[in-house]
Amino acid sequence: MLRRMSVALMALAAALVTPVPAQAAADPPVIRTDAGRVRGETTAEGKQFLGIPYAEPPVGKLRWKEPRPVRPWQGVRTAQDFGNTCVQGASWDPGYEEPSHTEDCLDLNVYVPHVSVPEGVARRAVLVWFHGGGLTAGAGQDVVPDTFARQTGTVVVTVNYRLGAMGFLATTGLDGEAHDGVSGNFGMLDQQAALRWVRANIGRFGGDPGRVTIAGESAGGRSVCTQLASPTAKGLFRAGIIQSGAYGDCGARPHGTAVAQGADFAQKLGCTDLACLRAKPAAEILAAQSAFDWAPVAGGDFLPRQPEEAFARGAAAGVPVMNGANQDEGRLFAFARFDLSGTPLTAEQYPAVMREDYGDEVLARYPLSAHPSPTIAYATAQGDQLFACPALRLDSTLAGRGKVYAYEFADRTSPPFASLRNLGTDFDFGATHVNEVQYLFRHFGLRSPLNAEQRTLARQMIQYWGSFVRDGVPRATGQPAMPTRPGTVLSLRTPSVGGNVPSAGVHREHQCNLWDSESVTLNG
User: Fold this and answer.
1) Catalytic residue check, 329
2) Does 371 qualify as catalytic in the annotation?
3) Is the CB of residue 330 less than 8 Å from the CB of residue 383?
4) Which of the residue ranges 1-10, 15-24, 52-61, 69-78 would you say has the lowest mean pLDDT?
5) Which residues make beta-bridge pairs with 490?
């Protein structure tokens, strides 16, 4: 058995370095989808098809409607540029210096490697990536996974979906239009529409519709968590990867809460009916949405119960899952609150801020003397509460319905991701939120900022992720197995600080006995 596995791995390794013939590289590739033909382009890494519409543009009367199949087109559609980004505000991320008011945005991007399919394998495994951005920002183009596709021998799809109010508004009027009487999940339904497009079309790009893994970071990871609990997603994927997505225990808004928020939102816009809301320019919708929380809604066919309850009851997809968080998640958010504006948290302010946001018990657990600065002390508590401990809880909850492989990205030498590098700050971000993405993909399409040691870790991570996408088990050459026992994670680190090692101490290190206790009442 081991010999057969070794032969198969050698065959795959040989296939992954097979050069593409010169003539094949010169011809712009054309693929027929179920809606029409698309012309992509050939790059050094493979073939890519950008900005393919997977649903009818949700504009006019289709605003706040479930996604509908895209209308067929004649001729060959050029697929060499990214589509529009969905409605969102400006941010510090590269390419988002100006807001987007475009609702015609339901596109996806497909990346196909040059490398040959290994002998005996009919089609490639597929990774579908949902971007992060708090469900109010971002786009599929935020990552360029062409190198990942080549190195793993997989097809990768990145997806746009509706955001903010456009994606998650629930009102009594919209409930009346919904077939199940529950509105507010338009962005999540977009993701499922994209997965149905993948099921119908990815075979024409060399992908295997029966071997689809969904993955995402932050809000993208939360999306994966939500789709795992959705009965209407059944059969659309066979595995999931949740990166920093367990915040809030993957909770959705109760239907009544979402509708009440929708009423307040409509009132802010001066609207009393759907006709008024649909007539509002996207810019006005965007301006009004910042005061509200936008998230999936529980109570309908899409999400009959909260994800945590679905997992605990076994009423969720029993597919393999990789789940993890970053060691210093909170540093990004604490920096944005304090240091970004030139007002870092001071030692004098620290006790009062901690008491106001978390209370005396948390302050006692995070003494300023144990941290290099007040901002980092605050960030440590915030990251433990929002990300680290929810991820560990999710491992335990998910374990009851299928295999869960747990990791923690712990490279504190990692360079700040592109948005932070552009700020020119010397703040110590460590292994903060989002930082692991640049180890897997070209973030915002930029060249990798990683040094030699970090590139070694990146290659190992790509092997873990790629193996999971292909086979449902994360493996990397010469590296330890990713743990499946709740409470133990694989700590991902560079070789000079010990390399990748299983760690059973993360629950203690992140003070999870405190954050898991019902005695902690947050004041912020």
Assistant:
1) yes
2) no
3) yes
4) 1-10
5) 407, 502
